[in-house]
From TrEMBL:
Molecular function in Gene Ontology: lyase activity
Pyruvate carboxyltransferase domain span: 20-291
Record protein name field: Hydroxymethylglutaryl-CoA lyase
Keywords attached to this entry: Lyase, Metal-binding
Lyase in keyword set: yes
SUPFAM superfamilies xref list: Aldolase
Family membership: Belongs to the HMG-CoA lyase family.
Pfam families to which the protein is assigned, alphabetical: HMGL-like
C-alpha cells in the first residue's frame, strides 16, 4: 500500500463548512446488495475497523424481514456483537426499520438511532414497500411516534429524489411534499437519496433551496448520492456549498439498491475523504486506516474495491 500521504495538498475554498459528519452506510446499504451473504463475524469486524478509522456514524444493519433482504437476516445476531464499539469512542450505530415490527426488534436489542425509508415516487414505493407513498407515510407514523416517545433519534430516508427508472424525472415539488411530510412525522433528519445517480449540481441546489423554502432547515438535511454517472462528488460539493454538513457514503464504494437495478454503487467514503482533506474540511477520518479496511473487505468479498482512491492508495 502506498505510504505517500503528503497528498492531497490542502487548499481551502471559501463558503464551505469547517467540518462535516460522514454517515457511513457500507455495512448496511453496501452489504445488502451483495449476491453472497457475508458472514456475521466479517460484518462485525468491518464495523469495528470503520470505527477505529474514525467514522462516528456507522449504519449497522436493517431489521427487515429476511425474505426481502436475506443478506441482512442476521441483524439479531450482529447487533449484540457491536457492544464494544463504544470502547473506540462516541460511535453511533443507526439501524433501518421498515415498520413497527422492525422497531420492536431494534429496540429489544438496545438500538438508540433508527431510520425509516420512504420514496418520492409511487412506482418505487410500490416495488420497495408494496404501498403507495401516502400509505407508506401512514405506516411510518406510529414507528416515528413510538421512537420519539422513547427518545430514539430518527432519520428519514427519501429515495428517488432526482430521478426514477420507471417514472423518469421527478418534479422538485413532488420531492418537497414527501420530504415535508416525513419531517412533520417527527424525523430528526432527512437524507435525500439520488438512488439511480442521475442528479447534477444545479438540480441539487434547486432541491435544497426548495426544501428550505418549505421550512426544512439545511442543518437537518443529509445527502446520499450514487455514482452511476460519475456525479457523486460534484453533487456533494454543491450540497456543501449550500451548507449541508451530513454526507452519506459507503466504504469502498459498495452498494446499490436491490429494488432498482440501475442503481450502482454509493459514493465511496475514501473518495469523499480525499476531496474533503484537500479542501481542509475536517471529518475525523484516518484515510489510510479506512483504505486498509476497504482493502481487507475486498479480500473477504473476493473482488477489488470500486473506489478510485482505494485503488490508488493501495497500488504497489
Amino acid at each position: 500500500m502506498s505510504t505517500d500521504r503528503t497528498l492531497p495538498t490542502t487548499v481551502a475554498a471559501p463558503g464551505l463548512p469547517a467540518r462535516i459528519r460522514i454517515h457511513e452506510v457500507g455495512a448496511r446499504d453496501g452489504l445488502q446488495n451483495e449476491k453472497a451473504v457475508v458472514p456475521t463475524g466479517v460484518k462485525a469486524e468491518f464495523i469495528r475497523r470503520l470505527a477505529v478509522a474514525g467514522l462516528s456514524t456507522i449504519e449497522a444493519t436493517s431489521f427487515v424481514h429476511p425474505k426481502w433482504v436475506p443478506q441482512l437476516a442476521d441483524a439479531e445476531q450482529l447487533f449484540p456483537l457491536l457492544g464494544d464499539i463504544g470502547d473506540v469512542g462516541d460511535v453511533a450505530l443507526p439501524v433501518l426499520v421498515p415498520n413497527e415490527r422492525g422497531l420492536d426488534r431494534a429496540l429489544a436489542l438496545g438500538a438508540r438511532r433508527i431510520a425509516v425509508f420512504g420514496s418520492a415516487t409511487e412506482t418505487f414505493a410500490a416495488r420497495n414497500l408494496n404501498r403507495t407513498v401516502d400509505e407508506s407515510l401512514a405506516m411510518f407514523e406510529p414507528v416515528v411516534a413510538r421512537a420519539k416517545a422513547d427518545k430514539v433519534h430518527v432519520r428519514g430516508y427519501l429515495s428517488m429524489c432526482f430521478g426514477d427508472p420507471w417514472e423518469g424525472a421527478v418534479p422538485v415539488g413532488q420531492v418537497v411534499r414527501v420530504a415535508r411530510a416525513l419531517m412533520d412525522l417527527g424525523c430528526d433528519e432527512l437524507s435525500l437519496g439520488d438512488t439511480i445517480g442521475v442528479a447534477t449540481p444545479g438540480h441539487v441546489r434547486a432541491l435544497l433551496s426548495a426544501l428550505n423554502e418549505a421550512g426544512v432547515p439545511t442543518d437537518t438535511i443529509g445527502v446520499h448520492f450514487h455514482d452511476t454517472y460519475g456525479q457523486a462528488l460534484s453533487n456533494t460539493l454543491a450540497a456543501l456549498q449550500h451548507g449541508v454538513t451530513t454526507v452519506d457514503a459507503s466504504a469502498g464504494g459498495l452498494g446499490g439498491c436491490p429494488y432498482a437495478k440501475s442503481a450502482t454503487g454509493n459514493l465511496a467514503t475514501e473518495d469523499l475523504v480525499w476531496m474533503l482533506d484537500g479542501l481542509g474540511i475536517e471529518t475525523g477520518v484516518d484515510l489510510d486506516a479506512l483504505t486498509a479496511t476497504s482493502v481487507w473487505l475486498a479480500e473477504q468479498l473476493g473482488r477489488p474495491s470500486p473506489s478510485r482512491t482505494v485503488r490508488a492508495l493501495s497500488a504497489p
